[in-house]
Design a protein that fits this description.
- This is Shikimate kinase.
- Keywords: Amino-acid biosynthesis, Aromatic amino acid biosynthesis, ATP-binding, Cytoplasm, Kinase, Magnesium, Metal-binding, Nucleotide-binding, Transferase.
- Its EC number is 2.7.1.71.
- Its main location: cytoplasm.
- Helices cover 55% and strands 14% of the residues.
- By secondary structure, the protein is α/β, with parallel strands linked by helices.
- The protein has a single domain, classed as P-loop containing nucleotide triphosphate hydrolases (Rossmann fold, 3-Layer(aba) Sandwich).
- The protein starts with a strand and ends with a helix.
- The structure holds shikimate-3-phosphate (S3P).
- The site of shikimate-3-phosphate (S3P) has 9 residues, from loops.
- The site of shikimate-3-phosphate has 9 residues, from loops.
């Protein structure tokens, strides 16, 4: 089975994905890392040199390539992956895959993102916590339309292991 984790930046897709993959004995794939390997450049550089539209097309292309792989894996998508073009339709239409929305409270997202925002091109321009707060609340609200289409929703409010435990008990 393929497991596709979706959710906002800072929702824990990579840390939960890595532990879940280890637990299931399958490969962990991080979509952002795959894009960086393919292009041999960082996500921030893609945004700054080629712009967001270029990034979104690339992201969709790499997503589709990964979905065609003939193996089981856990895929951590980027926070915006399901929200552009036909990506969410493709994700939910995938017969051998299950999509999981890692749902994290806005307060927790902000607490994580405040220290990590500079690695994220969409947040780097925000000057302080108040601006981050305002941006994330609106952005999450807009994106939730896509995230809520996932096959399963799992709250990621406790430890990574607790969330992995919740996911495995829902799957098996
Ligand atoms: C993005 C999230 C990032 C990365 C890019 C854009 C977004 O991934 O794909 O910076 O649009 O939410 P993470 O969710 O892993 O931070």
């Amino acid at each position: 089975m393929k497991i596709i984790l979706i959710g906002y930046m800072g929702s824990g897709k990579s840390s939960v994905g890595r532990e879940l993959a280890a637990r299931l004995g399958v490969r962990f794939i991080d979509l952002d890392a795959e894009i960086e390997i393919q292009e041999n450049v960082s996500i921030s550089k893609i945004f700054s040199e080629k712009g967001e539209i270029f990034f979104r097309k690339l992201e969709n292309f790499v997503l589709q390539r990964i979905l065609q792989l003939d193996e089981n894996y856990v895929l951590a998508t980027g926070g915006g992956t399901p929200c552009y073009g036909n990506a969410m339709e493709i994700i939910i239409g995938q017969k051998d895959a299950i999509s999981i929305y890692l749902k994290t409270s806005v307060d927790r997202l902000i607490a994580r993102l405040v220290t990590e925002k500079d690695n994220r091109p969409l947040l780097a321009h925000l000057k302080n916590e108040a601006e981050l707060n305002e941006f994330v609340r609106k952005h999450l609200f807009e994106r939730s339309y896509f995230y809520n289409q996932a096959g399963i929703k799992v709250e990621n409010e406790g430890s990574v292991s607790d969330t992995v435990e919740k996911i495995t008990s829902l799957l098996f």
